[in-house]
Structure to design on (287 residues):
């Protein structure tokens, strides 16, 4: 299978918000990070892709199945983790494993117990007594133990300490080492996505601003600090957005390699995912 997710012109409208004609592909065996400010529509998009909420679309396939007509066939091979636990808070991790073994045909109890041990989770403590981070760890243990082909994460790492987040990033990269496993992750911790994502999709006010490989972002985007004369000399096509400061311009460009050849002495910073997002939201567009 070439793509874990394929979406064409997906739209979801509310009274005061519209997710507007979203189109993208998630290649199998890769990790795509979904970024955007609060209220941009990230959770709305994820809920639509998972079939949790209805939407209109030209195409919306998950693991090769249309999410409305045949989505039930994909659910066994999809695991979704949200920022809040969706399990009964009276359950213990041990009881949860016994329950899920009756839900998933591919349930691997040995793998589940190994994850609980690896994450240092108590077997017989009720979920409501666990910290937010520990409950998220239970979610990951449960999600990975039925061997899904697609892992969908909606701000799932926000309650985790930096040490476990780093361990989790390694786990996600291991998960996608073969071409049968993919990850679609929404996160406001863009530094995590800098480390593991193969692709970035940027959503702003319900519109998809771009979908790009991380290699393209790293190789082509840069930030220039310059004066008025140099700013005026830049091609408008190379400028994504700029921010006017007291005595200079701070400019996000999308053709860094070419500009280095033309302006060999110019100092240019690498642009992080967070830098790009901030410029798109707060920067001025050239006219």
């Amino acid at each position: 299978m070439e793509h874990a997710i394929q979406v064409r012109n997906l739209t979801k409208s509310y009274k005061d918000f519209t997710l507007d004609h979203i189109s993208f592909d998630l290649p199998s065996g890769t990790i795509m990070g979904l970024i955007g400010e609060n209220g941009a529509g990230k959770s709305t998009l994820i809920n639509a892709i998972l079939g949790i909420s209805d939407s209109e679309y030209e195409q919306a396939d998950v693991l090769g199945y249309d999410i409305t007509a045949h989505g039930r066939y994909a659910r066994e091979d999809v695991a979704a983790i949200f920022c809040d636990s969706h399990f009964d808070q009276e359950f213990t991790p041990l009881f949860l494993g016994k329950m899920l073994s009756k839900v998933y045909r591919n349930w691997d109890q040995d793998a589940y117990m190994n994850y609980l041990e690896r994450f240092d989770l108590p077997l017989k403590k009720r979920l409501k007594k666990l910290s937010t981070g520990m409950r998220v760890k239970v979610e990951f243990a449960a999600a990975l133990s039925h061997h899904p082909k697609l892992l969908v994460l909606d701000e799932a790492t926000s309650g985790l300490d930096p040490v476990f987040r780093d361990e989790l990033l390694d786990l996600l990269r291991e998960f996608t080492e073969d071409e049968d496993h993919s990850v679609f992750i929404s996160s406001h911790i863009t530094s995590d996505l800098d480390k593991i994502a193969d692709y970035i999709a940027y959503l702003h006010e319900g519109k998809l601003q771009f979908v790009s490989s991380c290699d393209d972002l790293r190789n082509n985007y840069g930030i220039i600090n310059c004066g008025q004369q140099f700013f005026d000399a830049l091609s408008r096509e190379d400028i994504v957005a700029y921010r006017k400061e007291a005595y200079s311009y701070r400019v996000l460009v999308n053709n860094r390699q070419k500009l280095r050849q033309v302006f060999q002495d110019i100092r240019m910073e690498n642009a992080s995912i967070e830098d790009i997002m901030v410029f798109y939201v707060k920067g001025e567009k050239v006219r």
In short: The chain is about 35% helix and 30% strand.
